Amino acid sequence: MTIAILILAYMIMGKDIAPLLKRVKNIDWRNKINALMDRLKPWALKAGRAATRPLLQLYYVLDDERTSTLDRVLIYAAIIYIILPMDLIPSAVYKFLGILDDGVALLYVYKKIQDKITPEIKEKVEDTLNKWFGVEYEVL
Question: Of the candidates 124, 88, 125, which has an alpha carbon nearest to the alpha carbon of residue 105?
Fold first, then answer.
């Protein structure tokens, strides 16, 4: 969904997103959310537990019925941008800069919605991580 990535880029740059937001107001988020999990898991298994945690936090905020349309668009765009192999700044060509743009997208959205990461969402994230990677035990 390129419109979502465009909205995210405009937000980061401080541009007006109102005309773009009108184009996403009638999206069926349930189908998008379900399809996103199918793409997220294979990426997660390659990236590892630590890299997956913030994306799952975003995912479960996206799935929360109380999340606004703008936040849904931004979260969806950030997750898609990170897990898709294509980037605006390809890391194969620009090395560090190609990784940095993923980080900027994730950090921008994460800071915007971090107050929406409830204890229930944290628990869902840990349950999902334990299913995908095995249970992690604390050393006392």
Answer: 88
CA separation for the pair 93, 89 (Å, rounded): 8
Domain ranges, ordered by start, for the chain: 2-133
First to last CA, the chain: 45
CA distance 90 to 73: 23
Lowest mean pLDDT among 8-17, 40-49, 101-110: 101-110
Summarised one tens digit per residue, pLDDT across range 85-96 is 665 555 555 565
Q: Which helix (H) or strand (E) holds 42?
A: helix 29-47
